[in-house]
Amino acid sequence: xxxxxxxxxxxxxxxxxxxxxxxxxxxxxxxxxxxxxxxxxxxxxxxxxxxxxxxxxxxxxxxxxxxxxxxxxxxxxxxxxxxxxxxxxxxxxxxxxxxxxxxxxxxxxxxxxxxxxxxxxxxxxxxxxxxxxxxxxxxxxxxxxxxxxxxxxxxxxxxxxxxxxxxxxxxxxxxxxxxxxxxxxxxxxxxxxxxxxxxxx
Length: 201
Known about the structure:
Arc Repressor Mutant, subunit A, 6 strands, six-stranded parallel sheet
């Protein structure tokens, strides 16, 4: 088993929140806090080698999504923390974020979100699902598969969870992809978020 640490940067304009998250990351043996900064501009030179960038910036949606896009294009996994009703999960995921976390999240959920995003999967805080609409376009089984996919499950794990074959999962994903216009997992994850199919655990 790999013991390599997940390298993280925290960019947040609230000193108390930034300090608290930094302390939390510092207490986790599998996480390595590389940088903590109050703005993108200040953090910019210290992000080399960082895998996950956690952003908590009280900014207008266009400025925040531009920052997310910039980080995503540089190869960082981005986890956005927000309490603003003007910023929703759909916006930041469309901009390239791997995760969205409500600011009211408990410490254990913050760590879970960081680890999930750091492992290459997507994470959306359950309360964010009230921001998005249900879709009438997917069958119940298709919605189950989209929900599991958006929570990071592989085709094999989806098959095991639903008691169906991997081939059947892939057939469903092909149909979902046909309806959605894309078979790519990031696009299907975004669609699951848009349609409120995130697992409310």
